Amino acid sequence: MMGAMTPADQLATRGYAVFDGFLSPDEAAELRGRLLELAAPVRPETLYEPDTRALGEAAAVSASGLALHGFADRHPELVATYLRPPLVALIREVLGDARVEELGALISDDARPFFRWHTHIGGEDEGVRFQSGHWPAIGRIERVLTLLYLDDVDDEAGPLYVLPRGVGEPTEPPGDIDVVAWPGSVSLLPKAGTLVAIEQCTWHAAGARGRPGERVLAAAYFARRDVAAPEWADAGAAAIDLARYR
């Protein structure tokens, strides 16, 4: 009998890997409360705006929700929560000599509609890529995004949609990015404490929340050191030595 796929195998063959129980329920609740506390001083009246608006140096509200960033320097006590050994082992296995590009959080609510299909190729905004109409061929894993869910997600709370993709497969959008149901896509319903790692070329989207309330995510980006860093990459995060968290 074949064994279960490792997280590295999952990333290579389907473009995403799932770590159930990355945090315990109590740990997830504690981190959720802490992130809402950090958001309180900059929290706008609405957690959704079609165009990105900066809220000081370390926060912005956009179509994805309220984003907090720069945690490596601003909230170093949280770094070890993000960089647990199972995740660091995956990052080092698939990216080799890797850097952390960002540690932060994303908070959204029922004001946000369906968050359209997108990738994170080159750390570039998908709207910019659509303007150029160019999706490059990439034959290796170069960047990984992680989403650590701090709330239970069900169909009404807005699933995470992912289109499985193997390394080296085409990166172009296979359909209308505003259509929820792409042929072959899967719907993920993470529990609080579940971490989902997504390879940069993998198309994914988030369902709209169908009831009042907030969805809180801890988010991180990692990349190979031999690829160009995007403008938004955090210098404090890049200085982190991942070997300390094995």
How would you describe this protein?
The structure is a single chain. The chain is an alpha+beta fold. It is built from 7 helices and 12 strands. It has a domain at 14-40 and 104-229: Sandwich (Jelly Rolls), CATH 2.60.120.620. An 8-stranded antiparallel beta sheet has the order 1-10-7-12-5-4-3-2. The protein has a 4-stranded antiparallel beta sheet with strand order 6-11-8-9, with no helix packed on it. Strand 2 (53-54) and strand 3 (59-62) form a beta hairpin.
Q: Strand-residue fraction?
A: 25-35%
SS field, number of helical segments: 7
Helix content: 10-25%
CATH-scheme architecture of one domain: Sandwich
Structural class: alpha+beta
Structure summary, number of beta strands: 12
The CATH topology annotation of one domain reads as Jelly Rolls
Shape: globular
Give the CATH superfamily of one domain: q2cbj1_9rhob like domain
How far apart lie the N and C ends? 30 Å
Radius of gyration: 17 Å
* Assigned CATH class of one domain: Mainly Beta
Mean pLDDT: 94
Low-confidence parts: none
Helix-strand pattern: HEHEEEHHHEEHEEEEEEH
For the sheet with most strands, the description reads:
8 strands, antiparallel
The spatial strand order of the largest sheet comes to 1-10-7-12-5-4-3-2
